[in-house]
């Protein structure tokens, strides 16, 4: 397995999303999104993308951990932890105690994130997302 810190192609990224059940995304918007990521971790088995994670944000206050995914054929081998260790290292080097670092976790992946000092925000707060309506 190789670790790189650059974006895979948009097609490779979308393919991994589909394999992991995260659904597809528009190709041109994916290219833009990957280009504007603050930090990317890609895991490779030869030339096959098997894991991915990234951080998006403003490089000052707000950082969002996003798109953590591992190919189902490679799950249960600690690769999610490998990705999160790299993300954790980036955050330790590039944020301070006033930064707001967040993510939305699918269960049971919340157990992984908990190991990297993420905590639930309830009962005072809750996660929300905006419903996007196409006009």
From TrEMBL:
The keyword Transferase applies. The keyword RNA-binding does not apply. This is GCN5 family acetyltransferase. Residues 1-135 form the N-acetyltransferase domain. CDD domains: NAT_SF. InterPro entries: Acetyltransferase_Butenolide, Acyl_CoA_acyltransferase, GNAT_dom. One of its GO terms (molecular function) is acyltransferase activity, transferring groups other than amino-acyl groups. Keywords: Transferase. Pfam families: Acetyltransf_10.
């Amino acid at each position: 397995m190789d670790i790189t810190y650059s974006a895979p192609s948009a097609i490779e990224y979308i393919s991994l999303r589909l394999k992991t059940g995260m659904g597809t995304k528009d190709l041109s918007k994916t290219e833009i999104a990957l280009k504007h990521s603050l930090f990317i971790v890609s895991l490779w088995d030869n030339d096959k993308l098997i894991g991915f994670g990234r951080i998006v944000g403003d490089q000052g206050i707000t950082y969002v951990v996003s798109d953590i995914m591992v190919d189902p054929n490679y799950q249960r081998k600690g690769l999610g932890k490998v990705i999160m260790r790299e993300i954790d290292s980036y955050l330790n080097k590039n944020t301070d105690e006033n930064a707001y670092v967040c993510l939305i976790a699918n269960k049971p992946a919340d157990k992984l994130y908990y190991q990297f000092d993420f905590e639930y925000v309830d009962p005072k707060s809750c996660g929300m997302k905006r419903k996007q309506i196409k006009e």
